[in-house]
Amino acid sequence: MNVHVDKSGRLVLPKAVRQQLGITPDTELEIVPAQGGILLRPVPDQPPLRQIDGLWVHQGTATSSADWGRIVSAVREERAASAWPP
Description:
alpha+beta, Pemi-like Protein 1, Chain: D, two-stranded antiparallel sheet
């Protein structure tokens, strides 16, 4: 299957490909240079807990499967290890 790039640098993915891969109008794709061409793939979901300016910030909806006690303990251990190296 071939596609063409228009003069604005855009290309249209055929409907059959979009449907097969679950690509919707809001899907964000990442362009990865590959040997002999490029690879388009969906941008991975960002984890709901991210470190921003040294603070852990929850971004997203709460999940019942998260073990917050384990997460907090791991962060504390990481901070302690970086503050007092062996």
